[in-house]
Structure formats: C-alpha cells, structure tokens
Amino acid sequence: MKFFFRERKNPTINEVPKTQRELLLEDLEKTKCELDTAYRGFDYVTDPDLIDCYIYDINAILKRYKYLLEQVEETNREPEPVSYPSDTKSAATAFIS
Fold it and tell me: Which of 7, 15, 16, 21 could lock 11 by a disulfide, CB 3.0 to 4.6 Å apart?
C-alpha cells in the first residue's frame, strides 16, 4: 500500500508560495491516486481479512476525498457583499439634520 504525504520544505528564492487552493488540489490529486491504488489492491485479494482491510481503507480515503472537495468548493466561494439595513440612511440624515 502506498501513502502520500505532502513534504514541507522552505521555499527557495525562485519558488512562488502556493495558495491554499493549489495545495488542496495537490492533496486531492494524491488522494485520487491513493484511492486508485486501494481499488486495485482490493481487486486482487482473496483473503477475507485483507478484503476487510481494503474496504476500511477505501472508506477512509473516500471520506478524505469528500472533505478535500468541500474545502476546494469553500475556497471557490467569494465573500458575499455586506448589505446594510435600510434604516441606516435615515439615521445618517437624522444625525446631519
């Protein structure tokens, strides 16, 4: 079984720091590869204990994949514009008067 972990290293002068979205997309791609590996392993095992192990692994990877997708969607959302109540205008005119 192959596991992927993001390596933390200090950026050099020529490297541009990655955004949170880019890091999430990298993690999502690694998770896809890990899921493919788990499915391939599941296809070739015959021992009931290993089958249970692969089912557990696949479920865990799918939950991580779902979490990462939600995080990517959250980074895509733009903040909503702030709307002020309509009575603010009347309060301002009352102050000026």
Answer: 15
